[in-house]
Design a protein that fits this description.
With 187 residues, the chain is of the alpha+beta class. 35% of the residues lie in helices and 33% in strands. GO terms for molecular function: acyltransferase activity, transferring groups other than amino-acyl groups.
C-alpha cells in the first residue's frame, strides 16, 4: 500500500529499510519526544525487530507507514485503533529524521494519514498526545486542523522529569468540512 501527496509517500516498511531506520531513530532528540517503549540507543537489531513485526504482524488495530521524502525514508507514522468504548477513536504517533524538521514534511504526512484513516476505518475521532514542550509537533497537528482538547499537568515522566502533555484531536466531520474548504480555495 502506498499513499502519496506531492513529494511525500507513506508506504509499508520494507526489509531494506533497516539501516536507514536505525540511522534515523538513533537520535536522542527523537527519543526525547516519544514514549519510553521507543528504545535508545536505537540499534540495527531494534530496527530489524520493528520492521519484522510490521511485516509479519497481523494487528488489525494498527497501521504503520514509513514516510518517504523524494524516495528516501525520512520517518515513521502510524494510526492505532482503539477498542471497547473507544472503538471510534484512533491515536496517531510519528517521528521524522532531524534533517527534515521545520519544512512542513510532518504536516503533510499527518494529513495523508488522517485522510486514509477516516476513509478506511469506522473512526469518528483521531487524536495525538504530544508533550506540551514539543511545539513543532503541536504546530504540525494544528496546521492540519487538530485542536487542543486538554493540557494535562504533570501527566508524564520522560528522562526522569515530570512533564505536561497535551491531547489534540480532530473529528471526521471537521476534517471533511475543513478539507472541502481547502479544496474550494485551491479551485
Amino acid at each position: 500500500m502506498k499513499l502519496e501527496d506531492d513529494n511525500i509517500i507513506l508506504r509499508e516498511w520494507e526489509e531494506t529499510d533497516v539501516e536507514r531506520l536505525a540511522e534515523i531513530a538513533n537520535n536522542k532528540k527523537i527519543y526525547d519526544n516519544l514514549r519510553d517503549a521507543f528504545p535508545h540507543p536505537y540499534s540495527i537489531d531494534d530496527a530489524r525487530q520493528y520492521i519484522t513485526l510490521q511485516l509479519n504482524g497481523d494487528n488489525k488495530l494498527s497501521k504503520v507507514f514509513a514516510i518517504l521524502v523524494d524516495g528516501k525514508v525520512a520517518g515513521s507514522i502510524g494510526a492505532f485503533l482503539k477498542e471497547d468504548v473507544y472503538r471510534k477513536n484512533a491515536e496517531i504517533g510519528y517521528y521524522l529524521a532531524e534533517e527534515y524538521w521545520g519544512i512542513g514534511i510532518m504536516t503533510k504526512a499527518i494529513k495523508i494519514l488522517i485522510e486514509y484513516v477516516f476513509e478506511t476505518f469506522d473512526i469518528t475521532r483521531i487524536y495525538a498526545e504530544p508533550f506540551a514542550r514539543n511545539v513543532a509537533s503541536r504546530r504540525s497537528l494544528e496546521k492540519v486542523g487538530f485542536r487542543l482538547e486538554a493540557e494535562l499537568k504533570c501527566n508524564a515522566v520522560k528522562n526522569g522529569i515530570i512533564e505536561d502533555s497535551c491531547i489534540y484531536a480532530i473529528l471526521k466531520c471537521e476534517f471533511i468540512k475543513c478539507g472541502s474548504i481547502m479544496n474550494e480555495k485551491k479551485g
